[in-house]
């Protein structure tokens, strides 16, 4: 059989031999391309490689491209003129955000009476009327009048059997536990304290003062600390950096300050006592030493790392501050305005829907890619 193959090859026209070699080279090239595509997909799914790539791209940001270097001097002058215009745009944008801050302050005053009433209902200082409490759910709309009446009687019977709770118990604790960003820093020993949290308010800086906002956590009297209000203030900047004006993308939090919590003796959940055994080098005797060390707690939120005057922080402090800024911003922008929806879980469902939609779009794109590959006559599913 091998002789026949050799004979066929010997009788084959040299031009045909070239065609065979070309086909083999094309197939080899396709195999290499397919392997390269697979390797690229694997690399892009590796978070460490993506982080390194992002770091490299960040390093390139702002550096001149080879194209810019190749431009004639007269064109570079015009580009520089455009960049100066861009800096002026950044300063106008800063003014825009300052006016937005003024609008936030104005509308915060309009929202506050509603938030105060919400607080009164939560802490049982006000009982809403029947009219204020009426809310139709989708399920209720489908029920007949007879079924509605029956359901109402059953609900009233259940209420009679239970003790009458005051206000809405554990309102803010439930909100915290429903939000991943907050539940991640919430510890079991924090929960009894947060049951006493009655309200969270946002206060904006006064007109003419540097841009900032303060979160106020209002507590009822409790056995853990004597403070009635715990505060966290975030200082913001809304102006382009002189050294890097093109990085301006709206107001950014520059620093934050907490407050001193006046803990009742033995109730400070941000500290814990540990016992360590120490052995004497000479005598060999062992003694037990008691030490007080930091403890994980939500209430560490009120003692953030201090930013030195030069603005330089170690990596751990920088990561802590970044997480702190994110939490403070989320409480201000989402939690306080929509607290009841985070209590019921409806706001969580909305957030999940947003992510699902993105996931569905990604799935659709993958499906389209798979369909394209299947329609490709050169596509080999085994590769």
Write the layout of secondary structure elements.
Elements: H1 2-11, H2 14-44, H3 47-60, H4 66-70, H5 73-122, H6 130-133, H7 138-142, H8 145-161, H9 171-178, H10 180-183, H11 191-194, E1 197-204, E2 212-219, E3 229-237, E4 252-257, E5 271-279, E6 286-294, H12 315-335, H13 339-344, H14 346-375
Antiparallel strand pairs: 1-2, 2-3, 3-4, 5-6
Biased composition (Basic and acidic residues): 1-10, 145-164
Protein name: Nucleosome assembly protein 1-like 1
InterPro entries: NAP-like_sf, NAP_family
Name of the CATH first level of the domain at 73-128 and 167-241 and 251-304 and 314-352? Alpha Beta
Strand content: 5-15%
Return the average pLDDT rounded to an integer: 78
**Largest sheet, strands/sense/barrel:** 4 strands, antiparallel
Oligomer: single chain
- Write down the overall geometry: extended
As for the CATH topology of the domain at 73-128 and 167-241 and 251-304 and 314-352, it is: Arylsulfatase, C-terminal domain
**SS-based structural class?**
alpha+beta
Which runs of at least 5 residues are low in confidence (pLDDT < 50)?
1-12, 15-20, 368-374
Task: Write down how many β-strands occur, each being a DSSP E stretch of 2 or more residues.
Answer: 6
The CATH architecture of the domain at 73-128 and 167-241 and 251-304 and 314-352 is 2-Layer Sandwich
Helix content: 40-55%
Query: What is the helix tally?
Result: 14
């Amino acid at each position: 059989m091998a002789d026949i193959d050799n004979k066929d090859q010997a009788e084959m026209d040299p031009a045909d031999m070239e065609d065979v070699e070309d086909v083999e080279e094309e197939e080899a090239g396709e195999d290499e391309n397919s392997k390269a595509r697979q390797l690229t997909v694997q690399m892009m799914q590796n978070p460490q490689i993506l982080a390194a790539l992002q770091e490299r791209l960040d390093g390139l940001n702002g550096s001149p491209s080879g194209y810019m270097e190749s431009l004639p001097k007269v064109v570079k002058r015009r580009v520089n003129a455009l960049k100066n215009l861009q800096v002026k745009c950044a300063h106008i944008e800063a003014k825009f955000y300052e006016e937005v801050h003024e609008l936030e302050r104005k509308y915060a005053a309009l929202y506050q009476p509603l938030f105060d009433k919400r607080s009164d209902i939560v802490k049982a200082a006000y009982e809403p009327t029947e009219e204020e409490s009426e809310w139709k759910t989708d399920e209720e709309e489908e029920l007949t009048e007879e079924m509605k009446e029956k359901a109402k009687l059953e609900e009233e019977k259940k209420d009679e059997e239970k003790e009458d709770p005051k206000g809405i118990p554990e309102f803010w604790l439930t909100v915290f536990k429903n939000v991943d960003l907050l539940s991640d820093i919430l510890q079991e020993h924090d929960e009894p304290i947060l049951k006493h949290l009655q309200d969270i308010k946002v206060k904006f800086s006064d007109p003419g003062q540097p841009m900032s906002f303060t979160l106020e956590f209002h507590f009822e009297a409790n056995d853990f600390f004597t403070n009635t209000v715990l505060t966290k203030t975030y200082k913001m900047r809304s102006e382009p950096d002189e050294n890097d004006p093109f990085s301006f993308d709206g107001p950014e939090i520059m620093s934050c300050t907490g407050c001193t919590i006046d803990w009742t003796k033995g109730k400070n959940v941000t500290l814990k006592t540990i016992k360590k055994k120490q052995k004497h080098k000479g005598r060999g005797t062992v003694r037990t030493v008691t030490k007080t060390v930091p403890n994980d707690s939500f209430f560490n939120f009120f003692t953030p790392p201090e930013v030195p005057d030069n603005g330089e922080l170690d990596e751990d402090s920088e990561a802590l501050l970044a997480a702190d800024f994110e939490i403070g911003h989320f409480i201000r922008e989402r939690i306080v305005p929509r607290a009841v929806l985070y209590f019921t879980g409806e706001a969580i469902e909305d957030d999940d829907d947003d992510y699902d939609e993105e996931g569905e779009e990604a799935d659709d794109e993958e499906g389209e890619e798979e369909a394209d590959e299947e329609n490709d006559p050169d596509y080999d599913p085994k590769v």
